[in-house]
Design goal:
Layout lengths: L1 H44 L5 E6 L13 E10 L8 E9 L8 E5 L9 H7 L1 E5 L2 E5 L5 E5 L8
Antiparallel strand pairs: 1-2, 2-3, 3-4, 5-6, 6-7
Amino acid sequence: MTKLSELAAEAQRYVANTTMKRSWRFLLTIILSIPLALVFTHFLHRPSNKIIGQWKQSDLINYKSFDPYFLSVVERDVNWTYFPLNWERHYEIYVGKENGIPAYGHFIEFSFHPGYDDIDSHVKKSTVEWTEAGAIFKESSGHVLFIPKDMFIGGR
């Protein structure tokens, strides 16, 4: 009988030991997964800052304040609203001094209406008119956005 009880006690210790190992392994997996998920999420939400289109202020217009200015269409972060069926990028129209990746100026989040075109070719078909009152962005779809000069001149 003592042999049988010894075997039962050893089996109990084995089960308890493997359960404890599994618990620690599971806990370690969870703890290591959290930083990995955070890094993955960071890269998914990171803006691309790709400039889709850019127009320089006309030489005929002078705002007398840090001229010339640029109007750029910038690709930003991913819009996860319709995930997993569809996800698109946010786009911003930027007016400011930088002709590279914009850092300081006037930003407007803008949704484009490309129809059957891809966004790059649609933006390339758009035009910008610089006036004494500001900048006018005209999409090839007919949508128009006016940005008053007071929003981007004077080092804004």
